[in-house]
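Friendly challenge for the regulars: who can give me the structure tokens for this chain first? No prize, just bragging rights.
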Amino acid sequence: QVQLVESGGDLVQPGTSLRLACAASGNIDSIDTMGWYRQAPGKERELVATITNGGSTNYEDSVKGRFTISRDNPKNTMYLEMNSLKPEDTAVYYCKAVSAQGAIMITYWGRGTQVTVSS
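First reply, four minutes later:
Bragging rights claimed.
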């Protein structure tokens, strides 16, 4: 089992920055890829960024150059640094971890943290 807890969501003004954190616990050694997803009201959950155990990253086009995903493995924590925030970034942000348990891949989700970008 893997438990994920997000933090850092807030109400901020456009153009400002925010850093989200996702603390992982449990069967940490089994985690391969981790990622951030978001879901705005009335919309599907969408990928924001992913990062592998080896540090390879992938970003959704609308956040490239503004958001940075990172992992601090000794602290079992993943981060999402968000700069130049826009109102369209408003959403609940979820942390996801994919755990490799033998030949089986299991996906875990956190409960989410609200980010609201508004003047």
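The radius of gyration is 14 Å. The CA atoms of residues 41 and 91 lie 7 Å apart. Your move, everyone else.
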